[in-house]
Fold this protein.
Amino acid sequence: MRMALRFVLPLLLLLGLLSWAAAPFVGDLIERWFRADVEMRSRLVFHSIQETVVGLVEAKADRKIVQLFERITLDERVLALALCLPDGRLADASKSWPRDYRCPGEDRPGPSFGVEHLPSGSVLSAVFPLVSAEGETLGRLVVLHDLRFIERRSSSAEAYLAGFLALLALGAAVVTVLVARLTLRGWVRAVRRGVIEPAGTLDGTDHPPEVAPLIREMRQMLRDLETPRAISEATRIAWGPDSLRGLLRDELPGAEVLVVSNREPYIHNRDGDGIVLQRPASGLVTALEPVMRACGGTWIAHGSGSADPDTVDRDDHVAVPPDAPCYTLRRVWLSEEEQNGYYYGFANEGMWPLCHIVFVRPVFRAEDWDQYVAVNRKFADAVIAEARTPDPVVLVQDYHFALLPRMVRDRLPEATIITFWHIPWPNPEVFGICPWRKQILDGLLGSSILGFHTQFHCLNFLDSADRFLESRIDREHSAVRSGGHTTLVRPYPISIEWPPAALAGVAAVEECRAQTFARHGLAPSVRLAVGVERFDYTKGIADRFRAVETLLDSHPDWIGRLTLLQVAAPTRGRLAAYRDTQAEAEAAAERVNARFGTAEWQPILLVARHHEPEEVLALFRAADLCLVSSLHDGMNLVAKEFVAARDDGDGVLILSTFAGASRELREALIVNPYDVVAMAEAIHRGLSMPVEQRRDRMRLMREMVAENTIYFWAARMLLDAARLRKRRAIERNFAAVSQRRAPRSEPPRR
Ligand code: G6P
């Protein structure tokens, strides 16, 4: 309507002006035409009666002249006729001759015409000299014509003209609006198709040529938004809590941040009559906790501590960190049955070995799967309950919640869901073992962005989606399109806080070394290697014990001079595979110690208990060498923490080639943990390495971790999320415009 008015009003105005300006000319023109016509009629009248009148005048038949005049004035246009004598007197006239109208005074040789304005209206007087056959002037014949009809006609003509022009304006406006609307609708559809649905080609065949350049430009713009340019931009900033907060404020204004993970960042446990706070041994928690401290928001996690229910409010909220609260922990309670099925069963006996490929057979049970589905739904409900806006940024963590992204997407279609998979993603052959592979893939593809530690895992995921799901894989942009929704699949190598907050509470290197040596009764001449992990079969703990054994066999000069202090936090102890891992490692340590140990010296010290972050950092600072021999690991943050702990610039890192960290920490001694001989050699090499080389390597690794901190990890994901939200906003605008134009077009896409 607005568009129609925009066309019609100016057109009407223009044509109104035109008709106003043209009307006098038209009236004048019409008057002149009709006057010429009337003059011609007078001549006709004169010529047709001239002879008769001359005859009658000569015969002095005045009555007949009047009768003749009366007959002629029957014609409605001829008002009156009169015969004027040469001296100007009126001789004979029709009855209609205006009483006060006198004969024209001048005696002209030829006919003359003039317009007179009588009280009754305008008349044309046509005066013709009346001459006898002999050439004698008998008088003048005066024909009066009524000119009022001309005025009437000219004003009707003006009215018709104005009406016609108005109609013309209206018609032209309607046609213009129709053509414009149809063209616009076609363009909007074409642009929308070309921009939103990447299936369209731009070779000019299926788009109007007028919009093809626009589509091309917009596609480029959207592609730019998708390109991981965030990396290059983000590297220019030294990311920290402040810049991350700034990013949220500027790029995601008003966005609500919700994190979902199984493991909670703070566990309250009962200890006698009191409550103790524990920070779990979890790479995920180590990484995400500083981000949450910077961003604020709500972290939804399983309340697993024995005193957790006693420390929450009635909404199951607790403000954390307890000493300086800056975000909310929302605890979700799980029954024994749920924990057994979802956590121990499907997540840790199914998905964990499936993804890690360390030759521990994954176990898939239907009842575990049912619990996994139910618990994912329970956490999705918690997300919906916590969300205060329709479009929160939801950061979903890890293999415990593969179904949750889709569940949240269905209920909060506008949410930006970033799922990060903290463990490896296997190749399609291995992934295909899972009986619920389709549901897992579909669940994850509810995410806006799906992140892995390495490009290799991203490719494995794309291959799996390609193999098992109805989907379109866009390898150029690393995206999967399925069910009308696109998920970007991106590598975001996770990292740690720099410097780790816990380092502030840790003593100087020398002091740490002295304390550790004293605590474990180590002689000052002993070189100390450390290993810190959960007691997990993926960590290759027994393998590194075997490597130490091999080293002592092949380089016996290390006997009595090297101790491996292995700290291992018991984990997932309800599962046989974990109990076996611990038993196997303990047996291996015992065997090596029995073979080489003495009363004063043990080659392996195994401490199977949880250590708080400060203790771990102190251990790293005390050591000559850190051993990370994971058989398979998404990233492995222990390696990065060791590097971060060494602000003295010393220390050697031996790192498994199967840990994601080996892609970044290239100055570590990279080893194949399945090859104990090579690992033993690496330990030997590490312990024998000249100090300059140790320092050079450590410096490069520290630079790497200092640049690629956990804030950088979060910033890259949030920058990509911000770009995505901008892209969606553009798409929504298109959808809204085209829906307004074509009410029956498709619903807007997410
Ligand atoms: C890995 C997983 C995390 C998990 C952590 C500890 O790092 O990726 O999701 O939290 O191990 O395992 P747990 O089962 O004790 O949480």
Remarks:
- Residues 507-707 form a domain with the Rossmann fold fold (CATH 3.40.50.2000).
- The longest strand covers residues 121-131.
- The mean pLDDT is 90.
